[in-house]
Amino acid sequence: xxxxxxxxxxxxxxxxxxxxxxxxxxxxxxxxxxxxxxxxxxxxxxxxxxxxxxxxxxxxxxxxxxxxxxxxxxxxxxxxxxxxxxxxxxxxxxxxxxxxxxxxxxxxxxxxxxxxxxxxxxxxxxxxxxxxxxxxxxxxxxxxxxxxxxxxxxxxxxxxxxxxxxxxxxxxxxxxxxxxxxxxxxxxxxxxxxxxxxxxxxxxxxxxxxxxxxxxxxxxxxxxxxxxxxxxxxxxxxxxxxxxxxxxxxxxxxxxxxxxxxxxxxxxxxxxxxxxxxxxxxxxxx
Length: 286
Ligand code: C5P
Fold this sequence. Notes:
binds cytidine-5'-monophosphate
């Protein structure tokens, strides 16, 4: 085998709670995560050459030195002993960048899974997820994907019953967000409301889509500076007014998502949001 091609799915947070700051500088989290069909395509080839190389269709992304996909490849090489000479990674990007939807982490996870296939190294998904901890906090979840509870730094994973089939609308507002900055901000933010994670797990167990949607909650929305928070609220309102069962920000944002039972209603809201926000996507759960 000389080539593998894998989808790297985006994720949304059905819930996101920050439980506290740890001594290592990271935060203890509790998050219910869900993969969606919006995906980058990661192609890994083995050929001639003396080193690892990387290409992408987005010129402003970091290159082979710092790109999370290349970091993941080097972590894989360290654990497996394989040589990365002549290995080329190509990223065809669809997931918005710096958006709270795990675009980079998902590429990194796909590289771990892809190299495992290409070199026939036989690591289990759990072993690859463990390697992912060295790449980034969301990478272990992205290795497993689908619906899962992520705790600790993000690496303590429990598989959950799948989200019932639905249409998920994603909309990324134009402003940038710095994840480390928002984590710093949340340390100084008094959180009056927290997600009902136990209730979310129960609703997933029951396959109760309305119950899931009513419990979607992300503490980072409270840490957004104005007028950013207002813009997120406006997008949520547009989705809810258009028939979404629930709407919430994903990760540290700024992407907002809405969950719809009706594809037709989601399509109508897509049309109105896409006219204002070019990075709007109609997706489904994986
Ligand atoms: O692990 P990752 O590189 O994705 O984390 C990016 C930044 O997010 C970290 O440098 C840290 O500031 C913050 N973070 C955190 N606690 C976590 C995950 C991320 O404080 N559990």
